[in-house]
Amino acid sequence: xAGITQSPRHKVTETGTPVTLRCHQTExxxxxxxxxxxxxxxxxxxxxxxxxxxxxxxxxxDGYSVSRSKTEDFLLTLESATSSQTSVYxxxxxxxxxxxxAFFGQGTRLTVV
Amino acid sequence: GESVGLHLxxxxxxxxxxxxxxxxxxxxxxxxxxxxxxxxxxxPQFIIDIRSNMDKRQGQRVTVLLNKTVKHLSLQIAATQPxxxxxxxxAETGLLANNxMRFGAGTRLTVKP
Lengths: 113, 113
Prior knowledge:
The structure holds 2 protein chains of 2 kinds.
Chain A: E1 4-7, E2 10-13, E3 19-25, E4 31-38, E5 42-51, E6 54-57, E7 64-70, E8 73-78, E9 87-94, E10 102-104, E11 108-112
Parallel strand pairs in A: 2-11
Antiparallel strand pairs in A: 1-3, 3-8, 4-5, 4-9, 5-6, 7-8, 9-10, 9-11
Chain B: E1 4-6, E2 10-14, E3 19-25, E4 30-38, E5 45-51, E6 56-58, E7 62-67, E8 72-77, E9 86-94, E10 97-103, E11 107-112
Parallel strand pairs in B: 2-11
Antiparallel strand pairs in B: 1-3, 3-8, 4-5, 4-9, 6-7, 7-8, 9-10, 9-11
């Protein structure tokens, strides 16, 4: 899977708790992305990064923050998880941005109860 | 608002037949399109892409057709195999928003033996 590892793969958490999802790549790609996937919505971009410490918001960024202190790691944080954030989260990487081929991780299934 | 969508949510074909999966888009600024395949429990996998200066592109057993006049994209799979069973997403992006790739909701392809 193109050297992308997401952790954890599954998580159940309670409403109001903070949650951090990790994406680790071994490809040294510049661009990294976090998407969420929900039935009927396809994949929607949460945040993306175009370099170390360079991040920007996507379509559904409210309630999420990200950090990228190293090329290989992109963290997604839910500061105070809500039930609406129950979803499957995918990390993706690309060499030159989303107008080129992107490689996706296996996904993290997050359930907020 | 402008969106990427799919004509059919499900498609069932016999093994060996050709499959055609359709996608409509409405953003005239989009200039890059990708088809992704997602198998159960996995992340999306790049299949084929096409830029707006082309109307057809072929890969191994797959062909993507782009009709800019009617803003329509299709994925043709020749001699469909059981391993082709998956959810297929079309996605679009543009020069001005090359990090905001929008995905359709997906079409589930089932191949019957």
